[in-house]
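Replying to the earlier thread about multi-chain prediction with a worked example.

Input:
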Amino acid sequence: MSLREEQIHVMFLPYMAPGHMMPMVDMARLFAANGVRVTIVTTKMNAIRFKNSIDKDFRSGRNISLEILSFPSLQAGLPQGCENLSSTTTPEMTIKLFHGIGLLEPQIKIVFQQHRPDCIISDYLFPWTVDVAAELGIPRIAFSGSSFFNLCVANSIECNRPHDLIKSETESFIVPGLPDQVKLTKSQLPDIVKSKTEFSDLFDKLKEAERKSFGVLMNSFYELEPAYADHFTKVTGIKAWHLGPVSLFNRDDDDKVQRGDNTNVCERSCLNWLDSKKPNSVLYACFGSLTRFTKDQTVEIANALENSGFPFAWVVGKIVKCKNNEEDEEECWLPGGFEDRLKESGKGIVIKGWAPQVLILEHASIGGFLTHCGWNSILEGLCAGVPLVTWPIFAEQFYNEKLVTQVLKFGVPIGNEIWKVWANEESPLIRRNNIERVVRLVMGDGDKAMQMRKRARQLQERAKIAVEEGGSSYNNLKSVIEDIRVYKRATEKVKEIEGNHLIELEKPQ
Ligand code: UDP
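Result:
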C-alpha cells in the first residue's frame, strides 16, 4: 500500500448458515490480510464459531473486528442460542429462524449508518443491503455462495423454462444455451423454479438486488469453469470477481480445526484413526450442515458403508424429527450395535457433531468423498484432489452435481433424483446396494476410478495455483480491492466538485 493510499473500510454481512458464513469469513480475513480494514457483522452465537481466528488475525496486526448484534430469540419464538440454520431440528424451527434473521434488519441498518464503511459485502440473501449502500453512496457487492455454473444453469432455466414443455418428472431435458450439454430432470429442480411458493417474492428481490449491485463475489476460480465464468458475465452483464477456493486460505491446522465451529472434539482421535489407514483407502462421508435424513435412510447408509469393503469416516448428521415426539427423539441416531461393531472391526469411525472437514479431507488416507454436493464441500473435495460420490438433496445441489459428473467428470451420482428440502417418510429411499455399488466404483481401482482420480488431482493443482501470488483468484482479489478504492475516490471527487460548486453559488456576485 502506498502512502497516498488510505485504508479502505469494508463491512461483511454473512448469512447465518455455515455454508454461507464460512466462505465469507474466509474472504473477510483475506481482505484484512491484504491491507483492508474489515468489520464482520453477525450475532453473538455465530461470532463464537469463528472469533478465535479473528482474534488471532487481529493479534498479528490485521485491522479486523466484529460487530455483534443481539439475536431476537424471544420475538422469533426460538430457544436461546439457536441463531444459525444448522441449529434447527424441525422445519418449523427453520421458518422461525428465517423470521428471526429478518428481524435483524433495523439493527444492521443502524450499524452500517454508524460505521459508514466504504463498501458493504453482503450475502445475496440480504437484498435490502443494496438500498442501504445506495443511501450511504457506497458500493454493495453481493456474495453468491455458489458456482458460475450454478448461476448460468439457474439463469437459463428461469429465462427459457425448458421444463414447461415436459410432462414427466423423470424424463431428462437439456438446459438450453450453455457451453456444455447439461441434462436435468424436472424432479431435480427446486420447487421455486416450478411454481410460485412463499419464497417467490424474496427470490425476485434477490435478483433485482444482484442487478443493482456493484458486482458479485464468487467462491470459485477461473480455471475450474472458464466457459461459465465468461458466459455468466456475457449473459447477465454483472461484474464478478472469483476469489476461490477460499478454504485454501486456512493454512495452519488451528484454522482448519476451528473453521466453521470450534466445538468439534474429535480431531485428535479422528486423525489418529486416519493415520492407521493406507493412503487413498478411506471414504469420507458428510452431508453438510443442513441435511436431515430419516432413520430408515440412516440405516441404509450405515449398512452400505459397513459392507462396502472400504474404511470410512462418516459424519452422522441430525435426523428428521417426527412432529409428535419432538421432545424425546435423539438428534443423531444410529442403528443399535453399529458403533460397537465398528469399534471391534476398525472398519470405520462415526463423527457426531461438527467435523474438521478440511483437515480430514486433506489427510493422505482419504481416497473419496460421499457428499451432498453443497458448493463448499465440492470445492473442498476438489482441493483435496479426491473423486466424489454425489448425493444431492436440495438447494442448488443437483446443479452442482451436474458440474461434477457431466462437465468436470470427477464424480459418480448415487442416483437421487428427487429434490426435497428435508427427507420425510415419503421420500424415496436410496437402498444400501445402490450406495455400496457406487462407493466401490469410486473407491476401487477400475479405469473409471483411476481417470476420476487423475482429473481430481489436476483440478487440485489448478486450484492451488489460482490462489497463489499471480494466480487468477489472487489477481481478482487485488482487482476488487482496487475497484472499491477507485469507487471511493470517484465519489469523493464528485463531493468535492459539488462542494466547490456550492461555494461558487454562495459567493456574492
Ligand atoms: N462442515 C464442516 N464440518 C461438518 C459439516 C460441514 O466443516 O461437520 C463445513 C464444510 O467443510 C463446508 C460447510 O460446512 O465448508 C458446508 O457447506 P456446503 O456448501 O458444503 O453445504 P451446506 O451445509 O451449505 O448444505
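Residues 39 and 217 are 17 Å apart (CA to CA).

Feel free to reuse this layout for your own posts.
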